[in-house]
Design goal:
The chain has helices at about 10-25, 30-40, 90-95, 105-110, 115-120, 155-200, 250-260, 270-285, 365, 380-390, 395-410, and strands at about 50, 60-65, 85, 100, 125-130, 135-145, 210-215, 225-230, 235-245, 295-300, 305-315, 320, 325-330, 345-350, 355-360, 420-425. Strand 8 and strand 9 form a beta hairpin. The protein is elongated, with a radius of gyration of 35 Å. The protein has eleven helices and 16 strands. Helix 1 (about 10-25) packs antiparallel against helix 2 and helix 6 packs parallel to helix 7. The protein folds into two domains: about 10-180, 2-Layer Sandwich (Beta-Lactamase), CATH 3.30.450; about 200-425, PPM-type phosphatase domain (Phosphatase 2c, domain 1), CATH 3.60.40.
Length: about 425
């Protein structure tokens, strides 16, 4: 059962070489081949049979490997070609739930035993189970011919090593299954993200006397930020920006609901408070869900008179750069959408001037994180200073500068929250 022991340094080198080779393997079949090749340099393993109870009902079991196989089968990809047996001596071993040592095999093996082909001609065997959840689902059986004795002192160590190796193999299988599942999930999320982006404006409106630019970036495949523009019957335009609580797919679903509700009833887009009240009633009613809410800012622009009427539902107040200063549109506020039903949203009207730079944004911009920090954010003060530097920029140049500064601040790391910008320059 054992080769002549090698000097300990040689054995250590064999084991180290084997472990190093195993560390880079992702295919469980390749892992087993490398392992047994390495073990074969230390232990005489000429004859064996391996059993599996995974996915089969008692008293059945599969023969996954055997030194008497004339063709090698991959148990993971060719499972349907593995021999399935029931009962007999190997059946007892498969369902014993403990190591089994038999030293008088010929007297125990009946001529009609289902596993006679695999066991005939051997004198003794050592069966070592590999447990999963306390059950012996895989068993390795070492077979010794007549004249070769079992070294009983090696059995405990072989059982220990075999059990650990079995767990390692199963963990690798689970790792690959998880990687495949995550790959499928990521592809689905990618599609969700593509659908979500299709809900955003495909192009920005052309409004005489104004230039517009926008930027939208999610922290995951899909996100909860949303912006939109609504053409109004009197030639005006509605500017909408919203941020759903949370991240990822759940936020993206609520974002899609927000889009659907906002587009469901023509005539609710003016005045601004009416749209927010309509959205709030829907979210606080049919779409109410604990912990889910939407912050929103909605404004109606009269391009000719330059009157800008807005309402706010818990959203960051937009900024206006004017006359060398940055001013916040925080004159009014209200609860986020979906918190309480039957809310009224106060409105405010300001007059825009030539040269004004209006910036609507979600909090993913000002809450961008510095690398290696849990609490250092970009912040409103930095944002306002940056907007002052953009005082003479066009709308698109302003967006580009903000993005560049955010990337610099975060060390190029992906955003931890969705980031949306709408910039409007009054010409």
């Amino acid at each position: 059962m054992l080769k002549k022991r090698l000097p300990w340094r040689e054995e250590l080198a064999i084991i180290d070489r084997t472990m190093k080779a195993i560390s880079g393997v992702t295919d469980p079949e390749e892992l087993i081949e490398i392992y047994f090749s390495g073990v074969g340099d230390l232990i005489q393993v000429d004859n064996y049979v391996a059993l599996s109870r995974r996915g089969v009902a008692a008293p059945n079991y599969l023969i996954t490997r055997s030194s008497r196989f004339t063709e090698h089968f991959n148990p993971w990809t060719q499972r349907e070609r593995l021999p399935m047996l029931a009962g007999g001596l190997l059946g007892e071993i498969a369902y014993a739930g403990a190591p089994v040592v038999i030293e008088d095999l010929p007297s125990r093996l009946a001529a009609d035993d289902p596993a006679h082909f695999y066991l005939a001609g051997f004198q003794s065997l050592v069966a070592m189970p590999q447990y999963d959840g306390g059950e012996a689902l895989n068993i390795t059986v070492l077979l010794l011919p007549p004249g070769e004795e079992i070294d009983h002192s090696m059995i405990p160590m072989l059982h220990w090593q075999g059990g650990l190796f079995g767990r390692g193999t199963q963990n690798l299988v689970l790792r690959n299954q998880l990687a495949a599942a995550l790959g499928d999930l990521d592809r689905e999320l990618q599609i969700v993200g593509e659908i979500q982006r299709s809900l955003l404006p495909s192009e920005l409106p052309l409004i005489e006397g104004y230039s517009l630019a926008a930027h939208y970036e999610t922290s995951a495949r899909a996100g909860g930020d949303y912006y939109d523009f609504f053409p109004l019957a009197d030639g005006g335009w509605g500017l909408f920006i919203a941020d759903v609580s949370g991240h990822g797919t759940p936020a993206a679903v609520v974002m899609a609901i927000t889009h659907a509700i906002a587009h469901s009833q023509p005539g609710t887009h003016s005045p601004p408070g009416a749209l927010l009240a309509h959205l709030n009633d829907q979210f606080a009613g049919a779409y109410s869900r604990e912990g889910t809410f939407v912050t929103a800012f909605y404004a109606v622009l009269d391009p000719k008179s330059r009157q800008f009427t807005f309402a706010r539902a818990g959203h960051n107040p937009p900024r206006i750069v004017r006359d060398g200063g940055v001013f916040s549109l925080e004159q009014i506020g209200g609860l986020p959408l979906g918190v309480l039903a039957d809310q009224e949203f106060e409105e405010c009207t300001i007059a825009l001037d030539s040269g004004d730079l209006l910036v609507l944004y979600t909090d993913g911009v000002t809450e961008a994180m510095a690398p290696g920090s849990d609490d250092l954010t970009f912040g409103v003060a930095r944002f306002d200073q940056l907007l002052l530097e953009c005082g003479a920029c066009g709308a698109m140049e302003c967006v580009d500068r903000i993005r560049a500064r955010l990337a610099e601040f975060s060390g190029g790391a992906p955003p931890t929250d969705d980031q949306t910008l709408i910039v409007m320059r009054v010409i």
